[in-house]
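ARCHIVE CARD
SHELF: 3
SLOT: left
DATA:
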Amino acid sequence: MRSSIWRNFDYSLFIVTYALIFFGVMMIASATNGAIAPELISRVPNQIQYAIIGTFVMFLLTFIDYRILGAMHLWIYGSLIGMLVMVFLFGQVGDGGARRWINVGILIQPSELGKVLIIITLAYFLSRRYEQMDKISTIIGSLLHVAIPIALIFLQPDLGTTIVYIVLWATLIWAAGLRIKHIGLFFLLFTLLLPVIWGGMASYQRERITNFITAESGEQEERIGSRYNIRQARISIGSGGLLGKGYMNGTQTQYRFLRVRHTDFIFSVVAEEFGMVGGLAVMAGIGFVIVRILHGARVASDPLGSMICYGVASMIFFQTVVSIGMNLGLLPITGLTLPFISSGGTSLLSTMAGIGLAQSVIIRQRRFA
């Protein structure tokens, strides 16, 4: 029985995932080439370390029946809230004054790991109420389910990850069968909360949004410095041309004109060194991963499995669109990493855990999919 289950393991998803991770390590090495700051020098070995840990987590989650994880939803949800509270009590402050990390031998960002945890718990909540989606109480219950972690993450402050949680909630309730009549209610609720959200943002978060809106107005010259990164990103992407300047030969990258190049603007490094072809190849690889996970949703044996796959695919898709969009200047800077490629240990760990969850659903698919 067990061997027949593992026969359904999606090897193409596995291979493309690790090809992207390997390429990501290469690009981080290029982005930090010649660095003298210890924090930058350690980026490559740290990414490899988290990739190894992520491999163990991925296979562990693949091995564990996702339905068992669903049955443990209360423990998982409590662990998520507990970790987020620990950030406020013992968290380490990073750049910009945000408190997002805790040290457990290695630095982890609970809000990143929480993406996978909230997918499990919210998917279980909705799968138990799959035939009650016409009731407003079900929708409100799902909203309350994510409201506590969203509030804790927003206060860190971490606007980008907050938005990811909102997108995960919207994706899963839509997949569960959201009724059209409820959409207007949510729009009204969002409109009423918008002033509160704006007032609760850190000053640099509001500045990023206003800079994006007034990007071409030229009316506020004092903000040119804060727009430096996005301008250099555009130059990097444009100068790469069709095939790029070659690995570790990007002038914007190697001469340090492009800042935060190993995390937020890693796509600009790819486009400068490997050109439009390289950028499209990365998008195609991530797109293939998303398609395979969505296939897992289609062949899943129950609503819980389907919604887990929808949640993981949504997480990867949204982060990819936002990350590439802000590199192109089409979206405000949010600090979201490019899945599999950007430097970020906990982000990589979370994404690999998501792949493991999807594989757990895929190998236990219904017999006649």
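SLOT: right
DATA:
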Amino acid sequence: MKTVGSYLKEARLKKRFSLSKVEDETKIKKEFIESLENNDWQTLPDFAVVLGFVKNIAKFLDLNEKQMAAILRRDYPPKDLSVNPKPDVVNKFIWSPKITFVVGISLVLLLVFSYLGYQYKKFVSPPSLEITEPKEGEVVRSRNVWVLGKTDQDVVLKVNNQPVLVEDEGQFKTEIQIYEGTTEIVVKAVSRSGKETTLKRTIRPEL
């Protein structure tokens, strides 16, 4: 009595198709095709998957699909026989709306926490401070000296204990008077949290 595997193999060889040819056309692994032809149920998946294999191969080989399905039902072993329950199918990752939602929420939370962390670090850290003029050790020949620099926007700034206005981008510029014996300019920036940064510039008055 001919089996479903015999029919499939006979039709394949009659058309002179290799296992690789059938694999390429049906997208069924040639190991499964060979197992079907040899009725090797131990290496095949469950009945529903095998039935799909048989119909697909039968259609490609111009065999009667219904007849091949009927022969498969006759040949397929009982359920209590140990048969490989799962096909050798590679799991494919599918991007779903749920994943998009989760990723979107995660990115938003990451941005929020990053911003809060940045603001907290900025709040508890001493303010930045830079003096561009005068230079260290600069010779001063006038009683009025311009002090320029940059700091954080929301600080209280003083130059030699005189309050100085800080511009929107942190730039500051003020003119102070130099008295006899003044050899140092002290710039102090105090943040909202009370942290302070102090820079000093030594000058050489030649009045």
